[in-house]
Amino acid sequence: MSIATKPLTPAGERILTVASALFYDRGIRAVGVDLIAEEAGTTKKTLYDRFGSKDGLVLRYLERRFERWCAFVLAHLENYPDDIERILGVYDALEAWMRANDRGCGFVNAYAEFGGTDHPALDIIRTEKEWTRSLFVRLATEARFSDAEALGSELSVIHEGAVIMKTAGGRGDAIDVARSIARSLVAR
Q1: Does a structural domain hold residue 57?
Q2: What range(s) does the HTH tetR-type domain occupy (predicted)?
């Protein structure tokens, strides 16, 4: 059973909700368990009882974020019956997601803190990146592109670049530019 499939108590849910906001807004290493417990109205003991360690809480945060991202995108794509528009719809979903996530990709942010280590968070970070790439590959396959694997990889890189340019690059039009490039790629 993965960490994410274990049900949370109300206190565990509060801890995860508070930690998720703090980790995303301030950074994982910048946030201590004392602050999380205080903000969640619990004790450090409760945090450790529910998550085992701060690393356990970090994994649960990333797993929950991954689940929410996947569900968000897939629900968004239900509005696009046309195969080509579904591919471009991922960029629409990204634009909607970014309205509430102005600090960029939570997985890239976590990688900035844990890259080059053996932290278990790296597995979920890479899983999220691979899921997004494989989503584009699947959509390109459903749209009957003969080079679906290559096209999906290209679309994924454009997607990732749009997030970085919108946030770190300060380009408000980054997702529009990415969508335009993607439209050109699928039209070729």
Answers
A1: no
A2: 9-69
Residues 113 and 23 in one domain: no
- pTM > 0.85: yes or no: yes
Is there a domain that residue 1 lies in? Answer: no
If asked whether residues 153 and 103 sit together in one domain, one would say: yes
| Per-residue pLDDT reduced to its tens digit, 68-77 | 999 999 999 9
**Selection from 127, 2, 103 nearest residue 56 by Cα:** 2
